[in-house]
């Protein structure tokens, strides 16, 4: 009987050891799973935070680009408004400029020398101011006819000049800030 008791005791101990080992293995597996889940949760949180940061940076970059575009657009609008206002002013001065030009051309007799000199001074001063603001006279005589700058109102014939060359200017044309505000009225050579 002592053998049987020893055997039973050995079997009980073996069963207990195996149960203890099994329980230890289960606890270890449970701890590993808990650790893996914790790592996965941390990785998920890190990924979400990275995505949120990336989205925030993207929004920030878009906002900065939108703001830069807004600044450029408003600056261009401001410049356009300024130029439009000046263009209207300059256009209103063109008849005055034409009249001064005509008055200068009409004062040919000797008694009008002082008058002519005064008109020339005013004319030069006015041209200087308008040039500073961006008004430029369109160069015409001897140049090729360009419908963007010239308005052909007459045709002439000069065998010494090339075809489609401006022979005479009836009314000067002007550009303002590189934009034609009045084409020159010209006589064009036609062979």
From TrEMBL:
Principal location: cytoplasm
GO terms for MF: adenyl-nucleotide exchange factor activity; protein homodimerization activity; protein-folding chaperone binding; unfolded protein binding
InterPro entries: GrpE, GrpE_CC, GrpE_head
Pfam entry (one): GrpE
Compositionally biased tracts (Basic and acidic residues): 1-25, 41-50
CDD domains: GrpE
Cell location: Cytoplasm
BP terms from Gene Ontology: protein folding
Family: Belongs to the GrpE family.
Matching PANTHER family: GRPE PROTEIN (PTHR21237), GRPE PROTEIN HOMOLOG, MITOCHONDRIAL (PTHR21237:SF23)
Name of protein: Protein GrpE
Lineage per the UniProt record: Bacteria, Bacillati, Bacillota, Clostridia, Eubacteriales
Gene name of the record: grpE
